Amino acid sequence: MAFQPEQFVIAVQSLCPGLMPRIDFEVTNDGTGPMISKWNRPDVAQPTPAQIEAVDTDAIKAALQIPDISLRQFYQQLAVQGVITQDDALSAVRTGALPSALQTIVNGLPQAQQFPATMMLSGASTFQRSNSMTAAIGAAYGWTSEQIDAFFVAAAQI
């Protein structure tokens, strides 16, 4: 089966979940079909052409539910992947400064959580109760899970 480049990438990712094209591997097409031209993950076994060829990409694509993403998620993922800087991502979503009470909470988070928290608070078009940062911010205010739920219910009625 001759794959289109998009199908080839889906096949590689199905064999090696979590890998990102252009970061973990590169694909080229010399006219005979796409192939892996560079493998940047020595810790992961590179799939063979036969393994890639055996993947039913149509079934995988049919099973995938590609979600819409928010403006914040778009810019945050660009920064996570190194396409833009964290400062660029924050500039793209910010409409003003965080209130000092929230900035204090963000500053108290572990370093690895500060950028995601700032992105969420600065650029979320919706706030999800299920987001782990929601629980962390509520906990910083001393709120119980029930109080956080009540906050969301009250805010939804505004």
In brief, what are we looking at here?
The chain is mainly alpha-helical.
What does this structure look like?
The structure is a single chain. The chain is mostly helical. The protein has 2 domains: 5-63, XkdW-like (Phenylalanyl-tRNA Synthetase, Chain B, domain 1); 71-156, no CATH class. 53% of the residues lie in helices and 7% in strands. The protein contains 9 helices and 2 strands. It has helices spanning 5-15, 49-53, 57-63, 71-80, 86-93, 100-108, 111-123, 132-140, 145-156; strands at 25-29, 34-39. The chain has a two-stranded antiparallel sheet with strand order 1-2. Strand 1 (25-29) and strand 2 (34-39) form a beta hairpin. Helix 1 crosses helix 3. It is elongated and about 60 Å long. The termini are far apart. The model has no long low-confidence stretch (mean pLDDT 85).
